[in-house]
Amino acid sequence: MKSDFVSTVSHELRTPLTSIMGSLALIKGGAVGALPDRLKSMLGIAYSNSDRLVRLINDILDVQKIEAGKMEFRVKTLDIMELVNGTVSASGGLASEYGIEIVVGESTPGPKIMGDDDRLMQVMSNLLSNAVKFSSRGDTFEVNVSRQSGSVLVSASDQGQGIPKQFKDRIFEKFSRMSPLGGQQVGGTGLGLNISKSIVEQHGGEIGVDSVVGKGAKFFFRLPELSA
Ligand SMILES: Nc1ncnc2c1ncn2[C@@H]1O[C@H](COP(=O)(O)OP(=O)(O)OP(=O)(O)O)[C@@H](O)[C@H]1O
Ligand SMILES: [Mg+2]
């Protein structure tokens, strides 16, 4: 009952919000003529906040789906390197905006897995956006793929603030967020890693993190390798 309510309300919120975003995008893109600079920057704020709301609503809907056991996966054979490179090109813009360099270690040919590419890209892009949020300009985000006795290991390391030991056990729980060590404000709800964990586990894998505070965090996930 309660979760039905949350899902319905979230859905109902998303529809008008998508239309607000569409209109803002058109105005921003100059569809109604040139805009004065001050208006442009305010529109930018309105647009990025609607975008944030849409992402939040999508995350809430995902959590509901997971908890109801209704998250569906469209599984096919995937090349893990294509998935990694796909994420980097899809969300690499965010990294360059924040001055973070992305380095992808080569693994040719990329090991194959069975999985849902959209959902696994969601995992990768959450790791990437977290690395960006908790790093500083000039830092590097490094992704490596390796094979280990029947599984494929993807690791994503950053040089950001890292994760204190006492917080490491809670990091994959819903709504768990730590105040940024530098005191800067970063957006987020604390759902990304919880959703990522469910997605990885429903692929028969596991996810974890190693970190040294002040030196960075290394997230990794392991998925069963599809034998050739
Ligand atoms: N790479 C990282 N370095 C340091 N801390 C991190 C890193 N990734 C996650 N965290 C910590 O774990 C918390 C939870 O991450 P998670 O991705 O679940 O949520 P979020 O990024 O805050 O919000 P959302 O992903 O829902 O937009 C973060 O708020 C942060 O405190
Ligand atoms: Mg996140």
> What amount of the residues lies in strands?
15-25%
Q: Mind telling me which CATH architecture of the largest domain this is?
A: 2-Layer Sandwich
Shape: globular
Write out the strand line-up for the largest beta sheet, numbering strands in chain order.
2-4-5-7-6
Q: Write out the distinct hetero groups bound to the structure.
A: adenosine-5'-triphosphate, magnesium ion
Q: Give the CATH superfamily of the largest domain.
A: Histidine kinase-like ATPase, C-terminal domain
Assign the CATH class of the largest domain.
Answer: Alpha Beta
Total of DSSP H or I helical runs spanning 4+ residues: 6
CA(first)-CA(last) distance:
46 Å
Protein architecture, described:
The chain has 228 residues and is an alpha+beta fold. It folds into two domains: 2-67; 76-224, Heat Shock Protein 90 (2-Layer Sandwich). It is 47% helix and 19% strand. Strands 2-4-5-7-6 form a five-stranded mixed β-sheet. Strands 1-3 form a two-stranded antiparallel ribbon. Helix 1 packs antiparallel against helix 2 (37-67), helix 3 (80-97) runs parallel beside helix 4 (117-133) and helix 4 (117-133) runs antiparallel to helix 6 (192-202). The termini are far apart. Bound molecules: adenosine-5'-triphosphate and magnesium ion (MG). The site of adenosine-5'-triphosphate has 22 residues, from helix 4 and helix 6.
